[in-house]
Amino acid sequence: MMSEQVYLDLCRHILHNGQDKSDRTGTGTRSVFGHQMRFDLRNGFPLLTTKKVPFRLIWSELLWFIRGDTNIRFLLENNNNIWNEWAFEAWVTSDEYEGPDMTDFGLRRLSDENFAEIYDQQMAEFKRRILTDEEFAAKYGELGNVYGKQWRAWKTTEGETIDQLKNVIESIKNNPDSRRHIVTAWNPEDVPGNMALPPCHTMFQFYVHDGRLSCQLYQRSGDTFLGVPFNIASYALLTHLVAHECGLEPGEFVHTLGDAHIYHNHFEQVEKQLARAPGPLPAIKLQAPEKSIFDLLIEDVTIQDYDPHPGIKAPVAV
């Protein structure tokens, strides 16, 4: 339970001590700059219990990254909708789109029920076409050089590619005491125009000690209520998987945040969550322990003994 408490303490800290700021989405945030949380993975898997967090969405997104995929089709095939809005925005702002005006759909659907219904219809049609039309999916399901591309096929000035994830695993196996076990998603050349969304979790580093693998993530920007619980679980899971691949046990996940913020329209939900008592943390189960991390399927990783409080809905700022 102590692992989850550091997250709840961050939420309280932002609410009580944060600075109110404007933001890219127009929603407004309360934020702090520079915060670190530590999760000892020996004490359980840090999937929040004070609200239900959908593990399958976390795992399918992480698997998408590990595969080096950057098209939402794989996510939709696994009923994962968390990247839809960024692909949808590219579609509705294209010359080929002839449907209803979707300008500022992220905010308008929160305040206009009639528009929200129209938006839902257009999104459903968009998803249908991504899943059934390969040409459409290739053009409008593609998010550009986001995480998976940078992890698995970083493009060099020589036109070659670097598989950062594969290289760091080999480095951990062959030179465990190295201080260079680093994967970065922040590519200054691609950030301005070749990514649907510049990476929020920008760089992670592994550390080996006493047969255990630890991971530290630097995250430039964290939506503390909606996004950060996903990030905690995703990188804790990545630590488990890389540790297993390297014949190590998981150690700590260290989460370092730049701008840690709560959106103004999430305050009520955060207060509701803070009123709840944390429960015992669940455990990760590898259903196919003989498989390489690069060969895993959705069904190969599951969560055990997860008994959270009910989920708390909140709008996503796009």
UniProtKB/TrEMBL annotation:
Pathway as given in its UniProt record: Pyrimidine metabolism; dTTP biosynthesis
Reactions catalysed according to its record: dUMP + (6R)-5,10-methylene-5,6,7,8-tetrahydrofolate = 7,8-dihydrofolate + dTMP
Single GO molecular function: thymidylate synthase activity
InterPro entries documented for this protein: Thymidate_synth/dCMP_Mease, Thymidate_synth/dCMP_Mease_dom, Thymidate_synth/dCMP_Mease_sf, Thymidylate_synthase, Thymidylate_synthase_AS
Active site: 200 (nucleophile), 200
Gene Ontology cellular component list: cytosol
Annotated PROSITE patterns: THYMIDYLATE_SYNTHASE
EC number(s) recorded for this UniProt protein: 2.1.1.45
Pfam family, one: Thymidylat_synt
Keyword Methyltransferase: yes
Biological process according to GO: dTMP biosynthetic process; dTTP biosynthetic process; methylation
Chief place where the protein resides: cytoplasm
Keywords for the protein's UniProt record, in alphabetical order: Cytoplasm, Methyltransferase, Nucleotide biosynthesis, Transferase
Oligomer and partners: Homodimer.
PANTHER family per UniProt: THYMIDYLATE SYNTHASE, THYMIDYLATE SYNTHASE 1
Family from the record: Belongs to the thymidylate synthase family. Bacterial-type ThyA subfamily.
Function description: Catalyzes the reductive methylation of 2'-deoxyuridine-5'-monophosphate (dUMP) to 2'-deoxythymidine-5'-monophosphate (dTMP) while utilizing 5,10-methylenetetrahydrofolate (mTHF) as the methyl donor and reductant in the reaction, yielding dihydrofolate (DHF) as a by-product. This enzymatic reaction provides an intracellular de novo source of dTMP, an essential precursor for DNA biosynthesis.
Protein name: Thymidylate synthase
Upper lineage: Bacteria, Bacillati, Bacillota, Bacilli, Bacillales
Encoding gene per record: thyA
